[in-house]
Amino acid sequence: MEMGVEYCTWLDDEVYAHYGVRLFPDGDIQGFIERRAPVWTSVKPPRGIIYILEVNGEAVGMGRLDTFDGDIG
Predict the structure, then answer these.
(1) What mean pLDDT, rounded, does the chain reach?
(2) What is d(CA 30, CA 56) in angstroms, rounded to the nearest whole number?
(3) 25 DSSP β-pair partners
(4) Looking at the 3D structure of the chain, how many domains does it have?
(5) Which of 29, 36, 51, 58 is the most buried (most CB within 10 A)?
(6) Under a CB-based contact definition with an 8 Å cutoff, are residues 65 and 49 in contact?
(7) Residue 72 falls inside a structural domain
(8) How many Å apart are CA 4 and CA 63, to the nearest integer?
């Protein structure tokens, strides 16, 4: 959870710095993650997978790849 909050906070600040738009206008990043956690934790092979992006051994991002219906992902 902490990594998710840290990443989303960084992402929100970067998008705001470059585009003047807040991804989390209400500032409730932890609440957003808590609401989305059941969706993310339900992704398991073979239906899908969660990726953690590392640069020089440091986690710098995360993503999810999963199927929606049949062969559609």
Answers:
(1) 82
(2) 27
(3) none
(4) 1
(5) 29
(6) yes
(7) no
(8) 11
Confidence of residue 19 (pLDDT cuts 50, 70, 90): very high
Distances, alpha carbon 58 to alpha carbons 39, 53, 55, in Å: 25, 8, 5
Residue type at 43 in one-letter notation: V
In a domain, 10, yes or no: yes
Is 19 inside a domain boundary?
yes
Q: What are the residues whose beta carbons fall under 8 Å from the beta carbon of 33, sequence distance 6 or more?
A: 1, 4, 5, 8
Residue type, 3: M
Q: Residue 46: which domain range?
A: 2-66
pLDDT recorded at residue 58:
82
